[in-house]
Amino acid sequence: MAKLIYEGKAKQMWSTDDPEVLRVVYMDQATALNGKKKDQINGKGIVNNEISSLIFQYLMKKGIETHFIKKLSETEELVKKVEIVPLEMVTRNVSAGHFATRFGVEEGICFETPVEETYYKSDELDDPFINESQSLALKIVKKEELDAMWDISRRVNEILTALFDRMGLILVDFKLEFGRLADGRIILADEISPDTSRLWDANGQHMDKDVFRRNIGDLVETYTEVLNLLENAK
Ligand code: TMP
Asked: Which of 176, 160, 174 is nearest to 234 (CA)?
């Protein structure tokens, strides 16, 4: 019998008959402000699953190793079981969101070199910022693992910036998560979607979860537009 292994804010992970494989269920739920703003949004699970599946398959075609095995149904996918490294790896190409508020600068400043930040995944602590020496001191991650995670993040940034550019969108920032396979190898995990990235169109229109965070548009309509662009560009 399948067991619920983990329930996050927008996804559930279930066991399967294969101990090395998990089934992910994308839920119709959107949260912001670390869960303080929460809504049921019909159709979100389907569109996020489709977008993330397409992006992971595209990255794998470009040589990035990921946990993705296959899309199972409209809202489910099969992934390799990994031990998630409890760090959120954020890359920023353009100032926005917390970067803009934290440093009191406007949104839209293009960085010459991408800004890289890590956050410690902990609901109780509200996912605090954590630097390299702190994450090594707390033995959250090994130095070689962190280097591998940034190396993959930089390649993902290059690949996705070019992909979204072809779609007429700017990849402003995004968050990645990584996991360890049984042999200790680090691979890309979790999801990549407008829930975990900021995408602006040529007019500066938000094509991501900021429409929900800021109450400025319909989430499913916006994500479906991103999906349509992605289907034509990949
Ligand atoms: P931030 O500006 O709120 O720090 O977000 C930077 C990027 O990381 C943005 O694309 C959203 C993504 N992100 C997540 O996917 N999950 C999170 O918990 C946070 C804080 C950010």
From this structure: 160
pLDDT digits (tens, 9 = 90+) for 75-108: 999 999 999 999 999 999 999 999 999 999 999 9
Neighbours of 75 (CB within 10 A): 20
Ligand 1 pocket: which of 51, 52, 55, 90 to mutate (most atoms <8 Å of CB)? 90
Nearby residues of 229 by Cβ (< 8 Å), 6 or more positions away: 167, 168, 169
State the amino acid at position 188 in one-letter form.
L
Ligand 1 site, residue 177, Cβ cutoff 6 A: no
Q: Evaluate: CB of 173 within 6 angstroms of ligand 1.
A: yes
d(CA 146, CA 135): 9
Distance CA 31, CA 2 (A): 26
Give yes or no for residue 116 CB within 6 A of ligand 1: no
| Structure tokens, 227 | 């999906």
| Nearest CA, atom 18, ligand 1 | 34
How many Å lie between the centroid of ligand 1 and the Cα of residue 196? 6
Helix (H, G, I), strand (E, B) or coil at 59: helix
Residue with the two structure tokens 């990949």: 234
Q: Is the pTM of this model over 0.85?
A: yes
